[in-house]
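Entry 14. Structure prediction run on the chain below.
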Amino acid sequence: MLKLHHSTKYIILYSTLAGFISAWAISGLLVIVDIVSQTPIGTFFAVIGSSLSYYDTTISQYIGFALHIATGTVAGNIFGQIALFWNKLFPYNFKRGITYGIILGISLWLVLFLPLATFIIQPKLDAFALSAPNQYIFGIANHLQGLYPLVAIGSLVFHTIYGIILGFMIWRMIDLKVFVPINREPIQ
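Output returned:
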């Protein structure tokens, strides 16, 4: 039987921190995608920001980046809350951490990314390809024309990686008892 001792007090903290770090890791991978695809660094984040009507090149990147990190962090937090109250999701070993992390990543892709990309971001990019508020956004929209299937599949891979990192980190923090005070006896 599973012993939930110290970990239950810390699962939400572990999950939130793991979500934050995993979102940062994926953000780094997205910068690599920008380099490989020969788009300006921060293009992914600028697409998010400009889809929300932030058309300044710098501000749209910061808005997109902040929302990306916040989403990953909140997703980790919500996972921790659910795992706390539904013990079957508690990632007490490596296999469960990775498995439930992947399930979370794919769920985020299905519930959040796919609908937003399909119904908000892609139509906005299509409109920007015809008439954009500035040259930067026009260039991004034209560069991404016809790439939606590739972006969607690539995003599924990145969401899966996010889940693997998140699940591994939660399990490892539970295993190491991170943030748990060590009970030390005075040396005599």
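Residues 54 and 60 are 5 Å apart (CA to CA).
Filed with the rest of this week's runs.
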